[in-house]
Amino acid sequence: MQRLLTCLALLVSVSLSAQTTISGYLTDAASGEPLLNATVLDVPSGKGAIANTYGFYSLTLPASSDTAVLRYSYLGYRNQEISLRLTGDESRNVQLSASADLQEIVVTSDRGERIEQQTQMSRTEVPVAQIKRIPALLGEVDILKTLQLLPGVQSGGEGATGLYVRGGSPGQNLVLLDGVPIYNVSHLLGIFSVFNADAVRSVALTKGGFPARYGGRLSSVLEINMKEGNLNEWEGEGSIGLISSKLTLSGPLQKGKTSILVSGRRTYADFIAKPIIKSAAAEEETDIDLSLYFYDLNAKLQHKINDEHRVFLSFYNGADVFGTEIEDRFETFGAGTDWGNLVTSARWNWEIDPKLFMNTTATYSRYDINIDASQDDGRETFEARYLSGIYDFGGKVDSDYIPNPDHYVRFGAGWTNHTYRPGAVSINATTGGEVDIDTLVGSQDDYGNEFQAYIEDDFRLGALKINAGLHASAFAVDDEFYTSLQPRLGLRYLLKNDLSLKGSFSTMQQYINLLTSESLSLPTDLWVPSTGRVKPQQSWQVATGVAKTIDNKFEISVEAYYKQMKNVVSFREGASFIRGVEDAWEDNVTQGDGEAYGLELFVQKKEGRFTGWLGYTLSWNWRQFDEINNGERFPFRYDRRHDLSVVGNYDLSDKVWVSGAFVYGTGNAVSLPTFGYQTAQRPDVPIREISSEIGFQEVGSSKNSFRMSNYHRLDVSISFRKEKKWGTRTWVVGAYNAYWHRNPYFLTAGEVTDCSSGGGCERRRRVREISILPIIPSVAYQFKF
Question: What are the pLDDT digits (tens) for 600-650?
Fold first, then answer.
């Protein structure tokens, strides 16, 4: 195995001349956590390397170099310099310490690869420490809501966590938790995300210019990596808020070798509401049992076998539980909706040699939905249940080969087995007589096997850096076998004034489809495969832009993009997830084309007492289906011409800081009826008098031809931090929608009567915008020990 991998890597190397390689891991001195994207620079030669996701780095220097002065650096940490006499390959693990004058709340400039030096474009990494400082709804820190503040990313609506990236839909985002796809990212009907920031180590979003190692979705890749766990000492952190509390514990089982991390979060609306509801119901001789909460549980175990081998086990389980049971003297009635994720992985890191690193991962994930209703009056019983879900297991191997500082080669392959449950309805009923019902409808599962392989090289030719690669994928389902070759190319040309010109081209293919409502992030969303009738989704995207760092404080980037999509999936008009008894789910969907293009501006200040960013997007987003809107092209519901976000954090002192976030966006596109006709049932009544009566049929206009009012909101917070003997505590006081702007959430249609001074009256239709989130104050108590 080792010989095979070494031979494969040598095929892509450009030089086998005598060289010296220094390799190892870059970690946090206090916790042992890997420092991904930390940098090492040989000062005399100017050659450098960057640590990968697992903290591994490899720097190869020419044989002519007999000494090296290595400078190790990372965001918010002290630089460390080491002088070496080069006599051969050397393993050097380095631990960096946080700056002595750096409090956790301060964000300083990254001394790593600057934005104009990077080949990759359309990618943003947001430090978790910065995410925790941004004002949050009800004080609940939310990773996905922070990402919505980036250019090119939009939310699905007021308070929602859905991500609509460069004209795509949520089902076109590949969300990876420790490298494992997670299918449902929302709690509480999309208001909160499933990611507990206290358990997260890094967050990165790629919107375009996808390197070859990514595949399977059209619009974005969101990588969320959990903390590995403290190898040196036990530590903990948590918070108590208005709707939830959380606690994270981490520490060594064997110091320096084995660690464990456990993190949990739960809401407690049910604890508060239960006694109130029970007391009110008791007066009516009724008993009400309420379930209303969500929870998340993260766990991780790591073990260092030796310097070459490390193993990790990751676990996540989270669910929403909404239900009620009502019992009185005559009958019992119950109804509820439960949904949640289970994600597990086993990972093995192997440093095969100083230039070759391999990561092998085995994965399992599950997403379930369960909707039920029941009634029992002592004589007759009725129970109905709707079940749906998707189950995956698979494995992948990813390798990094770094022959020299001018080449970074990645290659790998993977396989995933999918089991789809598009939905089954079971009904059980007893009537007390001879007629009983026990039936199951739509229980047939669908199965698919997805394969992928890739190779890419990030290399330098003078001032030009190139990332070129090829992603190959295949999908087997029923009697169909789909294949795809997807070329990827990223370019960066560095001008003399440290201004870089960038460009990228990528093609993507997606074999899994999300059937969803355009208006809400519902747990009834269905994941279904491509089949003989439903073709794989495809896209290609081209982007170009410029990037520059000014005074080591401001990062500025401007990008323009154009994306075309084929075979995007939508419900047919009038269809939904509740399909007919004899219908296959394919009968309720249609496929069409999509087009998105726009311009993005991103300005970020990463150093000093004031930090933050400004993001602006100008974009267009279209859809076209033969069976929708008479085949005419129409704006996608989340077509948003202008989208602006301004985020700022200011340190009044090392103990007090204020934060704010302002967002503005063009209103969502909506469909409204603009005319109607009188039916034969009421031929004698004028239309204006029966617009809401039986016998009048409303007919819609062109799809999404109207706009809701523009959206804007200001969130603010102030934090007070204090050192205690046992650790630190922080009080956070904030407000969501601070100036109480009534942003529209949905529309309702009704009638009003207008009467003139002459005594005549006329009824007319009126559409009202309904707002659901006013100003919402919050307070949270955070602690760390």
Answer: 999 998 778 899 999 999 999 999 999 888 889 999 988 999 999 999 999
CA distance linking residue 411 with residue 399, whole number of Å: 5
353 inside domain: yes
Q: In a 3-state reduction of DSSP, which class is residue 277? A: helix
Pair 217, 332 in one domain? yes
Q: Which domain holds residue 556?
A: 123-565+594-600
What are phi and psi for residue 209, nearest 5 degrees?
A: 55, 40
Residue type, 148: Q
> What CA–CA distance (Å, rounded) separates 68 from 244?
52
CA dihedral 116, 122, 127, 132 (to 10 degrees): 140
Q: Output the pLDDT for position 687.
A: 40
What single-letter DSSP state applies at residue 641? S
- Total domains in the chain come to 2
- What residues pair up with 324 in beta bridges, in sequence order? 290, 335
Structure tokens at 571: 């419900």
Look at residues 684, 530, 553 and name the one whose alpha carbon lies nearest to residue 608: 553
Where does residue 497 fall: left (phi above 0), alpha (psi -120 to 50 degrees), or beta otherwise? alpha
Do 333 and 291 contact (CB within 8 A), yes or no?
A: no
- Tell me the average pLDDT across 572-593: 71
Over the stretch 353-363, which tens digit does the pLDDT of each residue have?
Answer: 999 999 999 99
Does the pLDDT value for residue 651 go beyond 90?
Answer: yes
Residue 230 pLDDT greater than 60, yes or no: yes
Percentage of the chain beyond pLDDT 90 is: 50
- Category of 462 on φ-ψ map: left (φ > 0), alpha (ψ -120 to 50) or beta: left
Whether 344 maps to a domain, the answer reads yes
